[in-house]
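Progress report, Aim 2. The chain analyzed during this reporting quarter is listed below.
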Amino acid sequence: MTDINAYAATEAGGKLVPFSYDPGPIGADEVEIKITACGVCHSDVSMINNDWRASRYPLVPGHEVVGEVAALGSGVSHLKLGQMVGVGWTSHSCQHCSPCLSGRQQRCETGTTTIAGRGGFADRIRVQHIWAVPLPDGIDIQSAGPLFCGGITVFAPFLDFNLKPTDRVGIIGIGGLGHLAVQFANAWGCEVTAFTSSMDKEDELKTLGAHRIVNSRDDDAIKAEKGYFDYILTTVNVSLNWPLYMRALRPEGKLITVGIVPEPMGIPASSMVGGAKMVAGSDTGPPDMVAKMLEFCVRHDIKPMIETYPMSECNAAVERLESGKARYRIVLEN
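Predicted structure tokens for the chain:
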């Protein structure tokens, strides 16, 4: 096998530089993918900067990969050379721990994240075969990459928490995750309220599927939502007035976070006990759920709004993401 050519950070906060590595012999349960495109996610930036104190350098970012099967391990029979597949946050799982055996492989006790191995800012990538999810006919390949992280992150709660078409759903933070969550909730049949700090997005949010818009910086506007929502899904990674959002839930309502807020959320027990409300977190999803999400996207013409850059301009793409000006996901193309 030839070396894989990638872009890597060699230190915390460093610029991405050309980097090549030898992947070694392909494992019996592995797939090698020739990368067509890879999304750029805030988690990539966090790993580049070692915000989570878990980065190892040289670090190749990228975990929203779309590409063509270029090589198969001896034990892989369900995929074909040339088939288009995608890969998200997880690249390997043990297949024998309790989460794996129960169909929640993304929570594998010894699993490997795509970035922790070697990520998708590269010309090729190796992953365990179950994490190479085939792309369905009719999907937009150019914009499909962000669905494998941003998409499944906001789709999984619909299944894991049994959201119903009759539910009133609030989405906090209309960015890379939130603009997909609005589309999913609308297609699910829910009444969708977008909480945003950018009221200039109102027309765009209605086009995406929001029925109602609330200014997330206006406490009085949030107070007026008291007892309204069955679910509130928060995608932000900043602290907000969480007790106000708990008041906005109906009895037995749920506040679900997919954003990693750095400070304790400070939700008093009384706001959960009164009305038997719940605060929960959600991660990504197993391969089977990813496949269902992709089919749902094709059926309802759901796709992320993207900006594209050549892979060679990955540093400019990361800077664009950090600026907060991207609308709404960035994709690197080989």
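The longest strand covers residues 30-40. The first helix runs from residue 42 to 48. These observations will guide the mutagenesis work planned for the next reporting period.
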